[in-house]
């Protein structure tokens, strides 16, 4: 109550301070939820708490309705997507390759270099994703190169699993 009373007496300055504190608190709740989710994803397992905090602060939450194209083959790739809820279909040259669901991800190549998308990803149902864009990831890599190594390991494995998707790259 003291915070509300202070805001009432402080006029606009007090309201601005309360609004700022509320936004910070909401952001921290989202960060905490994102960190807990990241811990369950194989790509981020074993990351120290500090690194998870940094990644979580850089994530943007996105929601897509069924049938919406999230990324399109041939478009510039700028980010990586981690599926929190829902399902997506992945296709290459119009052929369905696979479905992805919660805990799975796509677009990891876009974190490493500026290239066009090698596949189209479409929401099969209402889908909530966490997105990390290249420039935020690169800033994290400068401070924590071990993150880059982990992502490279995943990219190499994906190239082994699906070489024809990436043969044009």
Number of strands: 8
Spatial strand sequence of the major β-sheet? 1-8-3-6
CATH topology: Jelly Rolls
Number of helices: 6
Which percent range describes the beta-strand content?
15-25%
Alpha-carbon distance between the two ends:
59 Å
| Overall CATH architecture | Sandwich
Structure in words:
The chain has 169 residues and is α+β, with helices and mostly antiparallel strands. The chain has a single domain (41-166), classed as Sandwich (Jelly Rolls), CATH 2.60.120. Helices cover 50% and strands 23% of the residues. It is built from six helices and eight strands, in the order ααββββββαββααα. The protein has a four-stranded antiparallel beta sheet with strand order 1-8-3-6. It has a four-stranded antiparallel beta sheet with strand order 2-7-4-5, with no helix packed on it. The longest helix has 39 residues, at 2-40. It is globular and about 40 Å long. It starts with a helix and ends with a helix. 21% of the residues are buried.
